[in-house]
Specification:
23 helices; 509 residues; mainly alpha
Amino acid sequence: MAGGFGAATGGNEFEAKITPLVIISCIMAATGGLMFGYDVGISGGVTSMPEFLEEFFPVVYKNQQIPGLAGNYCKYDNQGLQLFTSSLYLAALIATFFASYTTKTLGRKITMLIAGNLFLVGTAFNAAAVNLPMLIVGRLLLGCGVGFANQAIPLFLSEIAPTRIRGALNILFQLNITIGILVANLINYGTAKLAHGYGWRISLGLAGIPALLLTVGSLIVVDTPNSLIARGKLEEGKAILRRIRGIDNVDREYSEIVVASRAAAEVKNPFQNLLKRRNRPTLVIAIMMQIFQQFTGINAIMFYAPVLFQTLGFKSDASLYSAVITGLVNVLSTLVSVVFVDKAGRRMLLIEAGVQMFLSQMGVAIVMGLKVKDHSNNLGHGLGVLVLVFVCSFVASFAWSWGPLGWLIPSETFAVEARSAGQSVAVSTNMLFTFVIAQAFLSMLCHMKFGIFIFFSGWVLVMTLFTIFFIPETKNIPIDEMNDQVWKKHWYWKRYMDDFQDGPNGKYP
């Protein structure tokens, strides 16, 4: 443990084989990430297409077409354009609380099915949009799908995976997000060249493919034993546990799930339960990781990559091509996390990436500050490539750290009685700050100029220090043993894990 602040990584691992049922279920569930990633990638490319801007955002189109009308940093500064991107995350924020209820009462499987259907309807609205309200309605429906998917899928993956590969299987969700972004960038690059100005409709409409995959996948997968047992289906839960573990004797793991589920059933108000003293470490870490994840600046870059590269002076084709490169780096780097998360551990990846992201952001800020002014751009080809290298370095380090681990760590550390509500708070916090960044980035770029990258690098420094002192190591620890193996042994959080019972309203007596 770096710095000596983590918990011990021992623990009693339950016997389990890596069965085809587990692999298939996890792959099918993780297609929700493909849908989410496709939407992240597609919006940035579409908002850089002249035909789309002319149809829905004529003011931005005029700024783009008339040189000098708006400065290099301000040509895309438009609240309506930012609302097109950000409205999805506002809807996801609200939908998350409904998804918490369905995840607990109907199960992870049904919640994923709801998400898939919302994605399909939202895609239809977007592809057929004839005015801005119709476009925004489509985005809101997609956002509801994101809220339901992001609530259910990380829980599903954490609960169904064997302990020793839980990190790798959970990161399938993040890997599919990165693949979705890459596919979207490739499609945008192709559709931008189509005649008659319908490329943006094809880009938005093809979101129906990952939406269909998630819908079909949610019909195929089994629900998790944890979910079935929590809903009183004990025998079915035990049978599914035998199938996914590939062994007959699952009594020890089954008993632990039953005990944990009975404790969870005694909780009448799960959100009030979250405020109890013993849940404070996981709640604080879950919330802070979501805030930090967004204030790395990653989604500002992934949402608006083509727009950002055009601001730097890249031509339209070159900006889309550069976005494809960053998307490819994103996918390959997430594979690094899949390989190392259960070997090197969570903390090492977070700390290394913090240093790399800080240096990369500062590199971009220095080059832009020296060469890109409001009404002049002296970047040149060589420095343009250097900025792209810095951006790729930043994206790579995020993709093997804060990207997947921002979802993995909260989903695996909440106690069972707080897991659904805790995941809901984590997702809603993420969506809230994603909305803030998506709605504000182009305006921040206009007013702060290159300073926006110094702003984000400052946050990266803060989150790296937070990791060193407050985020424990959780690799190879069974989910239901986190309290004993992690929190009670952590230098700071152990003070919240004493044996006294919580008092009314979660206050310590």
